[in-house]
Design brief:
Layout: E1 3-4, E2 19-20, E3 24-29, H1 35-48, E4 53-57, H2 62-71, H3 76-81, E5 85-89, H4 97-108, E6 112-116, H5 118-128, H6 131-140, H7 145-154, H8 171-189, E7 192-198, H9 212-215, E8 218-227, E9 230-240, E10 249-255, E11 259-262
Parallel strand pairs: 3-7, 3-8, 4-5, 4-6, 6-7
Antiparallel strand pairs: 1-2, 8-9, 9-10, 10-11
Helix pairs in contact: 4-8, 7-8
The chain binds adenosine-5'-triphosphate and magnesium ion (MG).
The site of magnesium ion (MG) has 4 residues, from helix 1.
């Protein structure tokens, strides 16, 4: 089994040397827990290892990602110049994001793909989906859910033809279909994929949408805990197919000029959740 190095100091030791090649890994955590930073390390490690890498951001501009990386002494501009990396900012107003991801992957042929984040990607679909359209679907029912959704996902504004079988349509179902389409697109690329998802503090799921965790090959949870004025960052590998991974919580730091450094000493791992 070929392992993909994450570029995050200390992390790969916890997962037998890296992520299994070709897998889709989800990094889930609350605001500011380090998801984008992890993704930046992963993208840079790809470029450095001569693997063509595509970094899709749905939250920030290309410049912001490059700027953020610079804080950690990571030169993504250089990676772009050497044609090993492309940072692409996805904007819902410019059309279907999943189609754009598909097209860019086809053009570039990446070995690694990052999507930061899948939560904003999903949110943007529900924003784009006009309420009128949703009402038409739920009132008339759907004849062929898959066909309708593939149509909807590629051309969100198109009005759907008449349908016969009643089927309740809710946000969860929409999200599930969008995610299925996204994961199919990503699997087809055969690349090693890292996606990020927001996680609400009191969530019982492992992602905001509560589906992704079942569709991916691995889940890493990031936590930020504050107790009595002391704060700490922790991570846990919650799932990793094909891997005998560590199960404990490990503390980590985000350091200026360096980025994420995982403390892999078992005795110092914290259980503060
Ligand atoms: N230059 C820096 N030096 C040290 N720590 C930094 C630096 N820049 C950012 N950080 C820390 O990293 C955190 C942000 O990390 P990051 O953007 O990776 O989190 P995120 O989980 O992607 O956040 P969001 O939910 O906003 O997308 C900041 O809140 C800060 O604590
Ligand atoms: Mg982020």
């Amino acid at each position: 089994m070929k392992r993909i190095k994450t570029g995050v100091e200390g992390f790969d030791k916890l997962v037998q040397g890296g992520f299994p090649q070709g897998s889709i890994i989800l990094i889930s955590g609350g605001a500011g827990t380090g998801k984008s930073t992890f993704a930046i390390h992963y993208a840079h490690a790809g470029a450095e290892n001569n693997e063509k890498t595509l970094f899709f951001t749905t939250e920030e501009s290309e410049e912001m990602i490059i700027q953020q990386a610079k804080q950690f002494n990571i030169d993504l501009k250089k990676d772009e110049k050497s044609k090993k990396l492309r940072v692409i900012s996805l904007n819902p107003e410019e059309g279907c994001m999943i189609n754009k991801i598909k097209e860019e992957c086809k053009k570039f042929g990446p070995k690694r793909v990052v999507i930061d984040s899948v939560t904003t990607l999903l949110d943007s679909y529900s924003m784009v989906l006009p309420k009128k359209y949703e009402t038409i679907l739920s009132q008339k029912g759907i004849r062929d859910l898959n066909a309708i959704f593939s149509h909807f996902i590629s051309t969100p504004y198109t009005v759907v033809e008449d349908t016969v079988i009643p089927l309740p349509l809710n946000d969860k179902l929409i999200n599930k279909f969008i995610l299925m389409r996204l994961f199919k697109t990503l699997r087809d690329t055969k690349a090693s994929v890292l996606i990020t998802s927001e996680l609400l503090e009191d969530s019982k799921s492992l992602s905001r949408d509560s589906f992704s965790e079942f569709m991916v090959d691995g889940v890493i949870l990031l936590y930020f805990t504050g107790i009595a004025g002391e704060s700490s960052r922790n991570l846990q590998i919650r799932k990793m197919r094909l891997t005998q991974h560590e199960k404990a919580f490990f503390s980590f730091d985000i350091i200026r000029g360096k980025g994420i450094v995982v403390n892999t000493e078992k005795g110092r791992s914290l259980l503060l959740k």
